[in-house]
Design brief:
single chain; mainly alpha; two-stranded antiparallel ribbon; 25 helices; Clathrin heavy chain linker domain-containing protein 1
Length: 566
């Protein structure tokens, strides 16, 4: 009877569990509504209404315990609405197990139903996992073309990088081979081989017009042949092969040992000679003491010394010549020789800047000569570096200033030409303003001509040339520089301070800077001093010389100015 009365209630619970399992296991409110509706639900069959069964007290108690269990577990899960599906599924599975244990008559059927539900839910889970996996795989397949493109792009980039690295490696390898070839000592066969020249290339040092002139080519050929002979002579007299250096060092050591032996022998001979003279004097004194004291000891010694001089004059003179050896001078000569060899090593190894500093600071100025100058001048321009000749002059002028012994005029002129050829006007300004040069008229002319070639630097060059001319007492050119700068009044003050400014100097000034303002200053009083020239003398002087045009031009300007005054 208990089993029959609980069958309708169990049916409703199974329906509730089925709905929860298939619909996603709804929340607490839905479960409570189903459990409350379970008591008032009517079962319909074949169109006739049937009264709801009346549950027994034990079924009601069981349903209440099930309801309280569901509420308690839902609260433990922590969801008031629909929570995680897995947790709800576990809760209702335990509820199903309790119902199976409670209803023993339907235990087998309910167990089979529960197994089917579990199998169905596991199938749903497997399908969900498969769908998630397939979705990820689909994403991966969709991104494969983009990934492939990225890989191809990266492959192209790496190939380009490999090609760049290979090119750089080839360049470095070629550079290493060139350096090895340069350091390698050339054989005699290689030296005898002539370099093949391209006849289409221009001749170095000649323009196209000069290279087509037979006379110019003949002169250039003669210069080259002369230079070849000089180089051959230098190879024989000034340079030696690198292989002979060890032999020369051995010879130097042998010579030094011979010198030391000669010095020791010289010292012994000095002592022996001194001992012989002392012995001679001692014998004379003892003879004087034993035999004859009529003559004084001083007279006796003087006679003995005269006899000794007469008897051994030649020997004494030769010995004294040997004894004049000075070890200090020998040591200094060795140091100078080593200094020159060190300079040649630096120069031959391509360390031109160090060689320039070494030559400029040499002792006694042994490398301040034309030969060293020609060495640096023969190098010419080196790409990416300062001209070695300019570095040599710069170091030379600095060192000569430090020892307060300036360069001679010829070396100074070469230094100025070199600096101006390299557009180093600032360096020339420094040298001139710091009074580090030996000034000459030629130096002033070079600076003046450079200002004519470079209009932007003309005012600076005129000022520098004026300083040089003033130091050299070339007053007419100094005044000309002032006039060229527009300082006519300054030039007049400078001229009036001089006593040796001749009429030829005035004509030179007017010829090179003919202006009405200058003529007016020369033909009028200046600072209460009489006029230097008359207008007639100026015009006649200009017309009578080769500057006739200047005189006529001045007459025209004076005539125009006179008409304006009138």
């Amino acid at each position: 009877m208990e089993t029959r009365s609980s069958a309708p209630a169990l049916t409703k619970v199974l329906i509730l569990i089925e709905e929860e399992a298939t619909a996603g296991l709804t929340g607490q409110k839905k479960c409570l509504s189903h459990l409350s509706a379970m008591s008032s639900c009517s079962i319909r069959g074949r169109g006739h209404p049937i009264l709801p069964p009346i549950p027994s007290r034990s079924d009601q108690t069981f349903l209440d315990s099930i309801q309280s269990y569901i509420l308690t577990e839902v609260e433990k899960v922590g969801c008031t609405e629909q929570g995680p599906v897995e947790e709800y599924y576990i809760i209702y599975r335990h509820v199903f197990d309790k119902i199976i244990e409670h209803v023993s008559a339907y235990k087998n059927i309910l167990t089979s139903v529960k197994q089917e539900y579990d199998a169905f839910i596991e199938a749903l889970k497997d399908n969900h996992r498969s769908a998630f996996y397939l979705h990820g795989k689909l994403k991966a397949l969709a991104s494969e073309p983009t990934t492939l493109l990225n890989y191809r792009k990266r492959a192209f980039q790496l190939e380009d990088k490999i090609r760049i690295i290979e090119r750089n490696s080839a360049k470095i390898q070629n550079l290493i081979m060139k350096i090895r070839d340069i350091k390698k000592v050339p054989s005699k066969e290689a030296l005898t081989q002539r370099k093949q020249l391209n006849p289409a290339k221009p001749i170095p040092g000649l323009s196209i017009k000069e290279s087509l002139n037979l006379d110019t080519l003949s002169r250039h050929l003669a210069q080259l042949e002369k230079r070849v002979l000089e180089l051959k002579g230098d190879i024989i007299t000034k340079y030696i092969p690198q292989e002979s250096r060890a032999v020369l060092e051995q010879e130097l050591k042998r010579s030094l040992s011979q010198r030391d032996e000669a010095e020791a022998l010289n010292k012994k001979l000095r002592l022996r000679y001194s001992y012989s003279r002392i012995t001679l004097v001692a014998n004379a004194v003892s003879a004087w003491a034993k035999y004859d004291k009529n003559t004084s000891l001083q007279e006796l010694l003087s006679q003995v010394m005269e006899q000794e001089k007469v008897g051994e004059a030649s020997a004494v003179s030769s010995i004294s010549h040997v004894f004049e050896y000075d070890p200090g001078k020998s040591k200094e000569a060795e140091d100078l020789l080593e200094y020159i060899e060190r300079f040649n090593e630096l120069f031959s190894s391509g360390q031109y800047e160090a060689a320039a500093l070494y030559a400029a600071n040499c002792p006694r100025g042994i490398l301040h000569n034309e030969e060293t100058l020609l060495k640096f001048k023969a190098l010419g321009f080196i790409k990416g570096k300062i001209l070695p000749l300019l570095k040599y002059f710069e170091a030379l002028i600095n060192s000569s200033t430090a020892v307060k012994h300036p360069l001679n005029a010829a070396m100074t002129l070469e230094a100025i030409k070199c600096a101006l050829s390299e557009k180093q006007l600032n360096l020339v300004i420094h040298w001139v303003t710091q009074q580090r040069l030996t000034f000459s008229e030629a130096i002033g002319d070079v600076i003046y001509d450079y200002g004519e070639v470079e209009p932007y630097s003309k005012s600076t060059c005129l000022a520098l040339a004026q300083i040089v001319y003033s130091q050299c007492n070339i007053h007419k050119k100094a005044a000309l520089c002032l006039c060229k700068q527009g300082q006519i009044c300054g030039a007049m003050d400078y001229i009036k301070q001089l006593k040796s400014f001749s009429s030829d100097d005035y004509i030179f000034l007017l010829t090179n800077c003919a202006s009405i303002e200058l003529i007016c200053c020369l033909t009028e009083e200046w600072n209460r001093k009489p006029a230097s020239l008359s207008i007639g003398a100026i015009v006649l002087s200009l017309i009578s010389t080769a500057h006739k045009q200047h005189g006529l031009h001045l007459l025209e300007e004076m005539s125009e100015k006179r008409n304006v005054w009138i």
